[in-house]
Write a structure and sequence with these properties.
Number of strands: 9
Mean pLDDT: 85
Helix content: 55-70%
CATH superfamily of the largest domain: Multidrug efflux transporter AcrB transmembrane domain
Strand content: 5-15%
CATH architecture of the largest domain: Up-down Bundle
Strand order of the largest sheet: 2-5-1-6
Largest sheet: 4 strands, antiparallel
Number of helices: 23
Low-confidence stretches: none
Length: about 725
């Protein structure tokens, strides 16, 4: 089976599609999908800003841009290219019914661009969209085929790069879904291999420290490596690609599998030192540690599986396959590991006599401290809860489309450039539906309502302009009056009907179908804006809904916000509640497992408290550090609980075992603390070190997963070493 999975692993795919983060079986998602069928996708475009420091109104510069645009139009993946060099407007000549096409830029070596520049900057549909405010950059707007995959994205990007070089255009910025997708997948592929390699090195170092023999390195490493091969091979078998969230899977499988192996091998070596044979040592190790290892694997898997409560598919897939990977690691620890321990000659380390080493001395002093300061520790714990409460109140939920990229990331700087210099790349989509079946979207009464919306969006919402039937009619009215800007207003009812007739008659490219659907009862207002974050968008939308409620006739039209940006914002709003439900499910299921194991409600309560504490500490830390709650940080709570509870289970299992041997509560607790303490410290250090590798990621989400998971596991270690023993001392009675 291992060879089969190894063979399949080579075909593992990588994919990044942020639309997969849309909620499944959701009315808003369904609405957007239907909206897209009527018109087009709102994010299949590329922005290219070509700059000239001394100003773009230069013949040689504009000639090169013009050639670049012409060449782009021949690309089979490109549907249209818009730039001031190839754009024109219709102007009606005075005292004549004829309409003339007038280029925005007349490109010739004797041209004076002064008049062109004045006219361009007076046009709201151009200013700050196709040219920046300082006239140092021209925007090339490319609409490409919808839903391009990685291969076609790479091809299109390479063609753009080559054309820029061929036309000697060196100063430029570009951004868009096709550019971003290509970049994301390349980084994901690199980081997956990179973190696997680093995890190998880390594991080797820790295993050498722990066992000081090659035997203690290659046997655990074989189990861990096989676990990784199994899960990647299984993903390939199921045709499930590696997504952005799953990039942390290698690190998780490595450290979780290593935790199981270290607990079992440590107990095996301990029994060998006591003079037991290999077979007997294996039996004892699996009898005393095996049940706890089974429970830890199950609870960790439960932690990941509760991510199924989240409506985002990538998060669900992450939960499913990471849980499967944890169970694969457990299966190998129970099958391949004992076989190797039995067949391979044990190291010389196993013949060394057990001595009271520095681990024993540190833990012994620590246990004495707990006995003397138990009430003080409870006081500190209560005081911490107060501080935690303050920190949690500071925790906020915010989301940016580019939240996964660090601020100094090259790709993010490209996107930020367009937010600063142009209109931004975040799509804005609004839909107007006609409710009265006797009316049409082109009726003047409906157009007037749409004009109210258009005016609010431009003047009060923060859009520079909208692409809508209203804006088309305003441009038509301006053209009718010789291009005079004072006529950039909604024309009269009679003229509106006349302009719509003309547009429908002479619009050879049928651009009106991008604004009105075939039923004439459904229209759109679209635009773009900067990636300002969910909070800022919520404030804008609150004002928008207030305006709609107070000024729009809701008896004749219905207004919807939709689009990729809106859906992602909505999903972020629902994320906290979904993960809270998942976390509560995880706590309940783990409590039931512990209740089944210990047959005592009090014991379950004592065991759960040290595992809730790290989560509260995590929330408070994020609040004080001003780390927003979003996809990458929110899932950490569920993951942390599933992993952190492992040490508690090992501690409680050993404690129960010592009590069954007839030892007193205090002596049983001491024996548990001294023997299990070393293992949980070692495994926590391995886990933290493994997760800390993730801070090297280019993705901010992965960075936070590594940093915050490590912190949470350290909080869990402190809770298991100082809170759990105190709770057992104060509240546990042997009959429990």
């Amino acid at each position: 089976m291992s060879f089969l999975f190894l063979y399949l692993s080579k075909d593992l795919r990588f994919d990044y599609d942020f639309e997969s983060f849309f909620a499944q079986n959701d009315s808003d998602t369904d609405f957007f999908n239907e909206h897209r069928k009527k018109f087009e996708s709102d994010n299949d475009f590329i922005f290219i800003s070509i700059e000239r420091e001394k100003g773009v109104f230069d013949y040689n510069f504009l000639s090169k841009v013009d050639r670049f645009v012409d060449s782009l139009e021949t690309d089979t993946l490109v549907r249209s290219v818009s730039c001031l060099t190839n754009m024109q407007e219709y102007i009606k000549a005075p005292f004549s019914p004829a309409m003339f096409k007038v280029p925005y830029l007349s490109i010739c070596d004797t041209c004076n661009f002064t008049n062109d520049s004045i006219r361009i900057y007076s046009r709201p549909e151009l200013n700050h969209f196709f040219i920046n405010k300082n006239a140092t950059g021209l925007l090339v707007y490319i609409k490409h085929e919808q839903g391009l995959g990685k291969t076609k994205c790479d091809f299109l990007k390479a063609h753009i790069d080559n054309l820029l070089i061929d036309n000697n255009l060196k100063n430029y910025h570009y951004a868009g879904r096709a550019i971003g997708q290509s970049y994301y997948i390349d980084v994901m592929q690199f980081e997956t291999i990179f973190f696997i390699g680093l995890s190998f090195i880390l594991v080797i170092v820790f295993l050498w420290i722990a066992f000081k023999s090659w035997w203690g390195i290659w046997i655990p490493l074989l189990i861990v490596s096989t676990s990784m091969v199994w899960i990647t091979g299984f993903m390939s078998l199921m045709n499930e690609p590696m997504n952005l969230v799953l990039t942390v899977l290698p690190s998780i499988i490595f450290v979780v599998a290593m935790s199981d192996v270290i607990h079992l091998v440590s107990k095996f070596l301990e029994e060998l030192r006591l003079g037991k044979s290999q077979l007997v040592a294996i039996k004892i190790a699996y009898k005393e540690v095996g049940v706890a290892t089974l429970l830890t694997s199950v609870t960790t898997a439960i932690g990941f599986l509760t991510l199924l409560t989240v409506t985002m598919r990538p998060v669900k897939i992450f939960g499913i396959y990471t849980a499967i990977g944890v169970l694969f690691a457990f299966i190998l620890a129970y099958t391949l590991l004992p076989a190797l321990l039995l067949l391979v000659k044990p190291p010389k380390l196993s013949k060394k006599r057990i001595v009271k080493n520095y681990w024993y001395k540190i833990l012994h002093q620590s246990f004495k401290f707990i006995l003397k300061k138990r009430k003080t520790l409870i006081g500190v714990f209560v005081a911490l809860l107060v501080v935690i409460g303050i920190g949690i109140t500071k925790l906020e939920s915010n989301y940016f489309l580019l939240e996964d990229l660090k601020k100094d990331n090259v790709m993010r700087s490209q996107f930020d450039f367009f937010d600063k210099e142009y209109m931004g790349l975040r799509p804005f989509e609004m839909v107007v539906e006609v409710l009265d079946s006797s009316k049409s979207i082109t009726d003047y009464e409906i157009i007037t309502e749409m004009n109210k919306l258009d005016s609010f969006l431009v003047k009060n919402y923060g859009l520079n302009q909208t692409f809508s039937l209203v804006s088309v009619l305003k441009i038509a009215n301006r053209s009718e009056h010789g291009g005079q800007m004072k006529y950039y207003t909604l024309p009269s009812e009679k003229k509106c009907a006349k302009f719509i007739q003309k547009i429908q008659k002479y619009d050879k490219e049928n651009k009106l179908k991008l604004l009105i659907d075939s039923t004439n009862t459904y229209g759109r207002l679209s635009s773009t804006l900067g990636d300002i974050g969910k909070y800022a968008m919520d404030e804008k939308n609150t004002r928008l809904y207030q305006f709609i409620n107070q000024n729009i006739n809701k008896k004749i039209i219905k207004v919807h916000l939709t689009g990729t940006g809106h859906l992602l914002d909505k999903n972020m709003s629902n994320l906290a509640s979904s993960l809270t439900i998942g976390l509560l499910i995880a706590v309940c299921l783990v409590s039931l497992l512990m209740g089944f194991l210990y047959k005592s409600f009090k014991i379950v309560l004592i065991a759960i408290i040290p595992n809730i504490f790290p989560l509260l500490m995590l929330a408070a830390t994020m609040g004080f550090a001003e780390i927003d709650l979003k996809v990458s940080t929110a899932i950490i709570f569920t993951i942390s609980f599933g992993i952190a509870v492992d040490d508690t289970i090992h501690f409680m299992s050993k404690f129960k075992l010592e009590l069954k041997k007839g030892k007193s509560k205090l002596y049983a607790l001491k024996r548990t603390y001294l023997s299990t303490g070393r293992a949980i410290i070692l495994t926590t250090l391995i886990l933290c070190s493994g997760f800390l590798l993730l801070v090297l990621s280019d993705f901010l989400g992965t960075f936070y997963v590594g940093l915050l998971l490590s912190l949470t596991l350290l909080f869990a270690l402190i809770a298991d070493l100082f809170i759990l023993p105190v709770l057992l001392l104060l509240f546990f009675k042997k009959k429990d």
